[in-house]
Amino acid sequence: MQRQRFLILLLGAVLLTGCASSKMSVTTNPQMPAQTVSRLAIAPGSGVLGEAIAVELFNSGITVVDANEASTIIGRAGLREFELTSSQGYSVLREAGIEAVLAAKSVDAADGTPESASVRITSTSSGEVLAGITWQNGWGGQRGSIADRTMRKNLSDAAREISGEIMKRIRGTR
């Protein structure tokens, strides 16, 4: 009985040390005062992760302008899509009542779950980065194992986790 208990504890310790939950690194500019954002645009090229984060931000009360509409606003001013994150692009967006731009990039695994992501929120009034977030998915043992599937977050979970950190930065509560 004592030996079984020891083996169970040993197995549990091995499983726990062989697993890791998702990790997030968040940077903000401490010199810049917190800016409250109520309306933001998604930058073109932010992909499904950017759209998923946008849905979560919308659910939290932020007005979200999707990437297509942001491109249309920029296009009406005679700018190209890639100029959205230029000083001219920020000026055009600011005139349209957009306070910040969210740009997201992600690397996805073969099964469609996100592996890692970087997200940046930029103020349209100053061009300063309000928040920068890097996110890494969790893992547990061999890819596809039960432990691995338990530790990994799907797209919705990742977006919810990232948007929670964004909300802390754009609601002025750092």
Summed up:
This protein is an alpha/beta fold and 174 residues long.
Q: Strand tally, please?
A: 8
Mean pLDDT, all residues? 80
Number of helices: 6
Poorly predicted ranges (pLDDT <50, ≥5 residues)? none
Strand order in the sheet with the most strands: 2-7-6-5-3-4
Beta-strand proportion:
15-25%
The description of the largest β-sheet is: 6 strands, mixed
Kindly, what is the distance between the CA atoms of the first and last residues, rounded to a whole number of angstroms?
Answer: 51 Å
The SSE order reads: HEEEHEHHEEEEHH
What's the Cα radius of gyration? 20 Å
Helix content: 40-55%
Outline the structure in words.
- The chain contains six helices and eight strands, in the order αβββαβααββββαα.
- It has helices at 2-17, 47-59, 67-76, 87-95, 146-151, 155-170; strands spanning 19-20, 23-27, 39-42, 63-65, 100-108, 114-123, 129-136, 139-140.
- It is α/β, with parallel strands linked by helices and 174 residues long.
- The protein is 40% helix and 25% strand.
- The model has no long low-confidence stretch (mean pLDDT 80).
- The protein is elongated.
What keywords describe this structure?
8 strands; 40% helix; six-stranded mixed beta sheet; 174 residues; alpha/beta; 6 helices; two-stranded antiparallel sheet; single chain
Per-chain topology:
Layout: H1 2-17, E1 19-20, E2 23-27, E3 39-42, H2 47-59, E4 63-65, H3 67-76, H4 87-95, E5 100-108, E6 114-123, E7 129-136, E8 139-140, H5 146-151, H6 155-170
Parallel strand pairs: 3-4, 3-5
Antiparallel strand pairs: 1-8, 2-7, 5-6, 6-7
Helix pairs in contact: 2-6
